[in-house]
Amino acid sequence: xxxxxxxxxxxxxxxxxxxxxxxxxxxxxxxxxxxxxxxxxxxxxxxxxxxxxxxxxxxxxxxxxxxxxxxxxxxxxxxxxxxxxxxxxxxxxxxxxxxxxxxxxxxxxxxxxxxxxxxxxxxxxxxxxxxxxxxxxxxxxxxxxxxxxxxxxxxxxxxxxxxxxxxxxxxxxxxxxxxxxxxxxxxxxxxxxxxxxxxxxxxxxxxxxxxxxxxxxxxxxxxxxxxxxxxxxxxxxxxxxxxxxxxxxxxxxxxxxxxxxxxxxxxxxxxxxxxxxxxxxxxxxxxxxxxxxxxxxxxxxxxxxxxxxxxxxxxxxxxxxxxxxxxxxxxxxxxxxxxxxxxxxxxxxxxxxxxxxxxxxxxxxxxxxxxxxxxxxxxxxxxxxxxxxxxxxxxxxxxxxxxxxxxxxxxxxxxxxxxxxxxxxxxxxxxxxxxxxxxxxxxxxxxxxxxxxxxxxxxxxxxxxxxxxxxx
Length: 472
Hints:
The structure is a single chain. By secondary structure, the protein is of the alpha/beta class. The chain is built from 18 helices and twelve strands. The strands form three sheets. Strands 2, 5, 6, 7, 9, 10, 11 and 12 form an eight-stranded mixed sheet that branches. A two-stranded antiparallel ribbon has the order 1-8. Helix 2 packs parallel to helix 3, helix 2 packs across helix 17 and helix 7 crosses helix 10. The protein is globular. The relative contact order is 0.17.
């Protein structure tokens, strides 16, 4: 779902929009009355065996052999329910169909993706590709994109067994995604793959900061990510508050964090940057084992609906691009490109057509839309300035680093009627066949028609097939 925007598609129930929302609220309240204070988050993360944390699914995983060191390519998939999943899927198809010459060989640009940072609806596409690679192009549509997931979840709310369950709606969603979409996969399965690093992002509700499902952050919890279900991480990333309970992690005591797990405040720049200071404070808080025994995770769109802040904070908290790469033992690439796939919409609200008081649904959606769009605009500006600064940090005499920031969103659609059509597709987990087709095709068109992306391809075509020495 896009951030915490509330929209449930209950078309099969044949009730008005106001009654749809009221029905869901009544169901939630009824469950709370039945469960009283006995609703607890299921703890599924295991503690580390002890001692020094072992290597796991971490940022270092992005350093695979087989990908060219001339290009660093990062994708960011936004929230937005199945609308976001379909749009990002179309972009993956377009990257698959784009051939480039690197290191004297013709390659698919998709095979050069180093990392995908995703939130909420976009995390389904990212996680599926990370687990199954090209198989996504044969079975993702049938298993998720074109499946009425909303009805499966909503109908589950009426099961009497759920009313008395301590796990509640969230565990129902975890179980459904685990069986129907991700087939029991864990992060160990992601680690064994040879694809890009997949960063699934949620929100740490207790601190109001982002939380990425990487061993780097699980180390701070003295926990082992390898046994954690991918479905549970994706559920956390898309768990809209109130409609779903948080996914809960146990913050275990007794391990020895790596020296670099919590950055120095001065080195990270947090001393002069309030945003980074909050991030660092959030990381430091995991050491307070008595005060933070449990970590409650909800929809990642609350803190970052684009999946871009996770990239920015990862680099900046490390002390900048140069220190970030040095900590990984990596050399800079000549070209650094981020492709932001933004499926957020600007729908026309019914309140704009009448002087009647807006419905509860219209009011909630309008307020959250304003917050999401203002946050998105600030994040994009932050990244645009950030990558310029990073490329300057990494440049050296005789070695220039060129940055590219590709922004894909529905605003880039030239035809007003078609742009309006996409903006009216609701945030839900149910698309019509036509909507799914159109969103996938839009992913193709937006990428191929983007001037910044075409500039990147043209620069690659003109580049000599050798690499300068980036040693500083």
